[in-house]
């Protein structure tokens, strides 16, 4: 193997390692800062990400983070719909709130 191909292989190895470390660290930080429905979910996901670094991060981003995003999108769109058609009581009369 010549020096050019070994330097390319070394560069690809460093790039792959940096990417894996970034995905793992971002999953760990996101898990620590996120709120879950049940208190045990955070502990389970933290242990999964810590004990199975690559697989745990992929599983976390695939399942836990995606389900949290869906809940946030649903709640935002639901509150937006409600704000257009909601009425509130103000001094005994219904007033349209835009």
Summarize the structure.
This protein has 98 residues and is mostly helical. The protein is built from three helices and two strands.
Question: How is this structure best described in words?
Answer:
With 98 residues, the chain is mainly α. It contains three helices and two strands, in the order H-H-H-E-E. It has helices at 3-33, 39-51, 53-84, and strands at 87-90, 93-96. The protein is rod-shaped.
User: How many strand elements?
Assistant: 2
**3D shape:** rod-shaped
Strand order of the largest sheet: 1-2
Quaternary structure annotation: single chain
Low-confidence stretches: none
**Average pLDDT over all residues:** 78
Helix/strand class: mainly alpha
Largest sheet: 2 strands, antiparallel
Cα separation of the termini? 70 Å
Task: Give me the number of helical elements.
Answer: 3
Strand content: 5-15%
Count up the domains.
1
